[in-house]
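Study this one:
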Amino acid sequence: MAGHAPIGHAMNVAGVAEHVNKPLMLKQAGTYINQAFLAHEAAVFPTATMDQVNLAELWEDHITNEEMPIESGSIAVPEGPGLGVTVDLEKLKQFANRPRPKYEPFLVRIVYKHGPTIIARHDSAIAGHTDDMRFLARLLGQDKNLPGPTPGYMNDVRTEWWDDFDDPAWRKAWKATENKKYILA
């Protein structure tokens, strides 16, 4: 998988995948603009496919004039200039002028099946922390002795967003994480 790979890196990985005759999955999250790019990219790498969930179908509305329907598990590579999709500038202005949603605090529970439960605050308003959920070191700090197994895809782990403000346990955990990166439950 070449996730969120810059084009040069994706090209290198695609070359290796083709050389060893192994499949390659391209993964990025975004809108129809991103999906159009991925479709073009996957079309030129012989062993490449696109990720099954790239978020393009999860948006309430789109800023492109074209739709990209999924048919039999595939999407067509858009045709036309550039990526083959055009931006609806009026919709883009509307989205740009929408007020930002109010940030509501929440806790993240990282629950290992045969290990600890780690609870941490998530605050995307802190510079450089908008994607903490993807990087444990950003969420939990640089502690080299983090509890639990080494993060990896083979771990039996569940991540939960915990925002039950009325729950006394939530309030206690919120207070306990006030001056700490994380606590153990």
User: Anything to note?
Assistant: The longest strand covers residues 106-112. Residues 7-19 form the longest helix (13 residues). Strands lie at 2-3, 24-27, 48-50, 106-112, 117-122, 157-162, 182-184. The chain has two domains: 2-97, 106-184.
